[in-house]
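Students often ask why we bother encoding 3D structure as a string. The short answer is that it lets us treat folding as translation between two languages. Here is a chain of 235 residues written in the first language.
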Amino acid sequence: MKPVAIFRHAATEGPGYFAAFLDERAISWELVRIDAGDAVPQDAKRYSGLVFMGGPMSVNDDLPWITQALALIRGAAACDIPVLGHCLGGQLMAKALGGAVTRNPVKEIGWGDVRVSGNETARAWFGEIRSFEAFHWHGETFSLPQSAVHLLSSAHCANQAFALGKHLALQCHVEMTEAMIRAWCDVGADEIAASASSPAVQTAQAMQAQMAGKLPQLQSVARQLYQRWVAGLAD
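And here it is in the second language, the structure alphabet:
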């Protein structure tokens, strides 16, 4: 099988638990370090699937690699090569496939409950899971592309995930590890302080204090989603 391409847009926002999931199943993967200047591949057919991680930039920023990533996502969709997006990655998918990315009513930073939609597609992705505590770090949100199916919502963000056939876009983060949360709290300290008035922003201490209790459940949800996603990988 061809490798899965994982796109990293910031040094601290790597594949996290997703890489461990692939390694446990002996699924090969290749890291494309956009933050380090790696070129965006032009042909999605080099890979069995494409995975886009998070990042501090906006998909509406005038960055040359964003246009290239959007074209790659559209090419993958046209060839039925599955795409998976986490936060910024989900926003890239939404924009590439016809949705829009705009400012969310409030910033969401830290742990927060998300609810699974009551449709058949959501049940196919989430199984018996009806809600869970996700990790959030975003100030923007996406609309759903045409034919996409709504999967998740939270009190502060209506569109937390959508599916479009084999493709899964997430606004929230399910890929988190303890090391990633600590690193984000460190590099994002100023953003946390500047957003302290938001009802959906936690302190670094609060985020880290909840890791031991909430990360195991979050990774269980991630396994559920990732298992369904890798079942659709191209040969």
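Translate back mentally: The domain at 4-230 is CATH 3.40.50.880 (Rossmann fold). Keep this in mind for the problem set.
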